[in-house]
Every structure is written in C-alpha cells, then in structure tokens.
From TrEMBL:
GO terms for biological process: auditory receptor cell stereocilium organization; cilium assembly; equilibrioception; protein localization to synapse; sensory perception of sound; synapse organization; synaptic vesicle recycling via endosome. It comes from the Eukaryota. The lineage of its organism: Eukaryota, Metazoa, Chordata, Craniata, Vertebrata. Its main location: membrane. The keyword Transmembrane applies. It is found in: Membrane. One of its GO terms (cellular component) is presynapse. Belongs to the clarin family. InterPro entries: Clarin. Keywords: Membrane, Transmembrane, Transmembrane helix. It holds the Pfam family Clarin-2. It is a multi-pass membrane protein. The chain crosses the membrane at residues 99-123, 135-155, 189-209. This is Clarin-1.
C-alpha cells in the first residue's frame, strides 16, 4: 500500500482513538450511566394499590459512577434526594467491583491516549519494531478493547446481579422497602461500548494498512524456520 494511504489510515485511527479518550473522560463524570424507576413496595401494600394506582408509588433514580439522584414516591408526593458513592454508599454497594469499574475506565482513557500517540508516530515518524511499530499498535488496541470489555462486564454485573439500584434506593430507609421497577443503561454506558468497538475497528484499519496480525506473522516464521531445518 502507498505511504500516503498508510498515513491516512493511521491518522484516522489516531483521531478515532483520541475521540474515544475524550468521550470516555466526559462520560466518566456524568450521572448518565443508569436510569430507572423504583417502586415503594411497603406503601403500595399498605393501601393495597391496584395497577392503575401504582404510578403514585413509583419514583425515579439516576446515577453514574460517583453520584446520582433519586425521587421517592410513597403516595404523598415525591421526595428528591441526591447521593454520592464516596464515602456514603461504600458499605452498601459492592465497593471492590465499583472501584474496579472506575480504575478500568481511567485505564481505558490512558491507553486510548497512548494509542493515539503511537498511531500518529507511525503516520509521521520513523517507527521501529516492538512497541513502537505495528505490533505495538495491535497491543494498545487489544489492551484498550480489553479494558472496555471489563468495564462493561463489571458494571453490568454490579447493576443486574448485585441489584445496585435497589441498594441505593433502600439506603438509610428504615420504614419503607423499595424494589426496582425498571432500569436502563444510559448514554455513558453506551459510550463505553461504542469506544470498545472503535478500538476493534482500529485493529482492522491496521490490517488494511498492510500489516499482518502478530500471531499470523509468528506462525509464518515458525513454518519457514521449520522448512529450513528440514533442508539442512
């Protein structure tokens, strides 16, 4: 492939990687990860509410990785409150899993920026092998993609398997019990998913630029060395 086309592909991959870093950094501090509704089960049972009356006992909840807000509906109007995960909810939520999500999200930003630098270096500089050449580009894309997958898996497990919304809704509630009525992942979560897919796209851009996958290259070297051994 001509050098100009390689530069264009590497520049495109670098721009995509940099855009991912900026998007994840913006998503990290927002409370747009999960949005849902919570049912005040205790109040609904006390008045024996029917399906048509349940909306009077359904509140809202929305949160991110650091803070959020909730509106509790127990039949007497909404009670809006805000909360923060640190340090208030550390004894309620799976703290190790939540901290891991933040760490891997931060690592994803760092590796996306590192990948951006190496893509630009390969486009305009004189890269050498190992971490600076095409093998390094594959490595940074793989690491970034792995971090993105870990963020998605850990956060999904925290929300769905550990019932994070219910634990937040029932925090410091002695007389009422709240149950999750509905919940959906929001913009920040889908940004992580899109950025993970972008790093996979970058892998194929490297391949289109004319550089074989590392494992394919090593396999070719093994077969050629084996043929040389047979000749001698």
């Amino acid at each position: 492939m001509p050098k100009l086309q390689k530069k264009i592909l590497f520049c495109l991959a670098g721009v995509l990687s940099f855009a991912c870093a900026l998007s994840i950094a913006a998503a990290l501090g927002k409370q747009l990860w999960v949005k849902g509704t919570i049912l005040c089960k205790t109040a609904a049972l006390l008045v024996n509410a029917t399906e048509g009356e349940l909306h009077q006992f359904v509140g809202e909840i929305q949160y991110g990785l650091f803070f959020g807000q909730r509106v509790k509906q127990c039949g007497l109007g909404g009670r809006p409150t805000t909360f923060s995960f640190f340090p208030d909810l550390l004894n309620v939520i799976p703290a190790s899993m939540h901290v891991s999500v933040i760490i891997f999200s931060t690592a994803l930003i760092v590796f996306a920026l590192v990948g951006t630098g190496f893509f630009m270096f390969n486009a305009f500089g004189n890269p050498f092998e190992t971490l600076h050449g095409p093998v390094g580009l594959y490595l940074w894309c793989f690491v970034s993609c792995s971090c993105g997958c870990l963020v998605l898996i850990l956060f999904s497990s925290e929300v769905k398997m550990h019932h994070l919304s219910e634990k937040i809704a029932n925090y410091k509630e002695g007389s009422f019990v709240f149950k999750t009525h509905s919940e959906q992942f929001q913009t920040s979560y889908w940004i992580i998913l899109v950025c993970t897919l972008v790093h996979i796209v970058n892998v194929f851009l490297i391949r289109v630029a004319g550089f074989d996958f590392p494992f394919a290259k090593s396999k070719d070297l093994e077969t050629s060395s084996g043929a040389n051994d047979l000749m001698y």
